[in-house]
Amino acid sequence: AQKNRHLTEKHLEDVLGLFKRSMDLIFKASGEKAFRPERNFNAAVFDSVSYGVAKRVAKDKNLSVEAIKTSFTQLLSDKVYLQATSRSTADKAFVERRLAAAVKAFAASK
To answer: How far apart are CA 42 and CA 89, in angstroms?
Structure first.
């Protein structure tokens, strides 16, 4: 947290661009249901999917919408991930579990 207190304008632009590219891919892959694995918006799905996709986009700017869609579908079938996004979502172990699952899922995107 301390290292992000005084961002340069360039770093801020880079992070904003990464966020925009990530959100664009997620929206194109899953539409308005992207962060609604059930009926309502799920903040735990939002934080983990956003993080996982951003980590991948930072390494591969040519990542396809189809790759994100496939990985997202697989992630939502992972029982451990679903448990970590549906209860005790502020619990440190659950946060770490869902972030790791999302990073792994999107790192495997082709």
So the answer is: 10
Q: Measuring CA to CA, how many Å separate 99 from each of 48, 62, 79?
A: 5, 22, 14
Task: Please tell me the pTM assigned to this model.
Answer: 0.87
pLDDT computed for residue 7 by the predictor: 78
Q: How far apart are CA 39 and CA 55, in angstroms?
A: 27
39-46, long-range: CB < 8 A, 24+ apart? 42/85, 42/86, 43/89, 44/84, 44/85, 44/86, 44/89, 44/94, 44/95, 44/98, 45/85
Cβ atoms 55, 107 nearer than 8 A = yes
Q: What is the pLDDT of residues 1-40, one digit of tens each?
A: 566 677 788 988 999 999 999 999 999 998 888 888 888 8
